[in-house]
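INFO batch 0412 | record 1 of 1 | parsing
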Amino acid sequence: MRKTPPAPGDGLDTQTHRNTQTLSDAQRVDWLRLIRSDNVGPRTFRSLVNHYGSARAALVRLPDLAKRGGASNPGRITTTEDAEREIEIGGRMGVALRAPGEYGYPSRLALIDDAPPLLGVRGTFEVQMRPMISIVGSRNASGAGLKFAQNLARGLGESSFVIASGLARGIDQAAHRASMASGTVAVLAGGHDRIYPPEHQDLLLHIIEHGGGAISEMPMGHAPRARDFPRRNRLISGVAFGVIIVEAAYRSGSLITARFANEQGREVFAVPGSPLDPRAAGTNDLIKQGATLVTEAADVISALQPIMGRPIELPISERDDEPIEDEPQADERARIVSLLGPSPLGLDDLVRMAVSSPAVVRTVLLELELAGRLERHGGGMVSLL
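INFO prediction complete | emitting tokens
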């Protein structure tokens, strides 16, 4: 079927995931309403806007799509008043909502397949646009690990890289403090007014005062929960050319960041440590798996120089510019849903097993997601909740 032409400035270029021009105030409100509505994530946002032509048109269709997906009640749709209030409250703190392609939105982040449609940006916009390297590691870091993170951040900063990290205790805060003069960006798990850990509120203020920045995709007033930190970690890797893991135990959140970096086509670096120190178990394992070993800033710079001038190729298995159907047939929908379960299944496998078109399968998945019945996993995998 033929798609509705996008409204001026509301369409998305799905090759780069950037909007074609600066959003108007009204469009920004519509985008915020859509992404803050129940069960609408970044991928779903793009599918809706690309298909219906604008966020405003997609908002009208949400109740019907959720109902077709099996929702007993339509999910909450953010009101214009709530969206305007969030923009106003953020503005008082100096937080601006930026879309991919707009000044202040990190250009590398705009390339990932689940880039936030709107990003809360605070601080100096210029620092957000410079080449970044992320440094993360253990919250319970060793003294040697903290010192190495500081030396590494300082050396990379002197080579004009901005250091991104998660404002956490341990390695993160050491990297932020060491790169304060050269440029650092804090990636937050909660809203800009809900800093975690709370004792790093002053650290964030120092970052802002010294020309650095902070970013968050979460709404104002949102206190971070456990599941928000992995979501935050994909942004830490997404903004950067590469991610450096200084210390990380097995099952560490830093290893989640490394996994995201691999999926996003970023370089993964790891600092070796003693086999006797559990805080080095994760980093040593990354090196065994092929991560670049780092003992000084020059190791990172020499590895990144060949790729600095070329675009990142992303292994995206699900294209957002493929069509969706207005309404699949009831038997097609039932057949696709019956194939789904708690175990993740790839989109290509689902299309083949359902003997259906990709457009129909994508539409059914969209309906299920808006009904709160679908979970998306890495690598284009989905499962039924």
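INFO post-check: Confidence is low (pLDDT under 50) at residues 1-9, 13-20, 314-320.
INFO record closed
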